[in-house]
């Protein structure tokens, strides 16, 4: 909780004012931080979860075992659909997703498969290719 609290200070969110911090943890217990990074061209915004996962992959992590997502909303917020899809690629159905409110202290723990029960997965590309 204290790591997420200091990490959220790095959120670059001048347009929404909605700060998010995320920590992805790999199979070896290594932690990789991310914050949301917004842009004056709004659509280029990147969510904290994807920054954390891409940071992990860039740093040499193979599989993500769990991810923490923290905001200052009273009720913990779930990841957006795009982030869930990225979690499906690098974590898989049993990956733990822990949502935290840094305001109320509320914590909600899920498995990815409960948040995204019908993920599009790499194996589905097999057989769908032309020629
Ligand atoms: N955001 C995240 O970083 N993660 C979430 O789970 C929800 C949304 C960011 C994107 C944008 O910078 C701000 O929150 C408002 O949508």
Description:
The structure is a single chain. The chain is an alpha+beta fold and 131 residues long. The protein has one domain (2-121): 3-Layer(aba) Sandwich (Cytidine Deaminase, domain 2), CATH 3.40.140.10. Helices cover 24% and strands 24% of the residues. It contains 4 helices and 5 strands; from the N terminus they run αββαβαββα. It has helices spanning 2-7, 48-58, 81-90, 112-115, and strands spanning 20-26, 31-35, 64-71, 96-101, 107-111. It has a 5-stranded mixed β-sheet. It is globular, with a radius of gyration of 15 Å. The model has no long low-confidence stretch (mean pLDDT 97). The structure holds tetrahydrodeoxyuridine (THU). Tetrahydrodeoxyuridine binds next to α2.
Q: What would you say about this model in short?
A:
The chain is an alpha+beta fold and 131 residues long.
Task: Provide the fold topology.
Blueprint: H1 2-7, E1 20-26, E2 31-35, H2 48-58, E3 64-71, H3 81-90, E4 96-101, E5 107-111, H4 112-115
Parallel strand pairs: 3-4
Antiparallel strand pairs: 1-2, 1-3, 4-5
Tetrahydrodeoxyuridine binds at residues 13, 16, 18, 20, 36, 38, 45, 47-49, 69, 77, 79-80, 83.
Q: Which structural class do you get from the secondary structure elements?
A: alpha+beta
Number of strands: 5
Could you say what the CATH architecture is? Answer: 3-Layer(aba) Sandwich
Question: What is the N-to-C succession of helices and strands?
Answer: HEEHEHEEH
Small molecules bound in the structure, each named once: tetrahydrodeoxyuridine
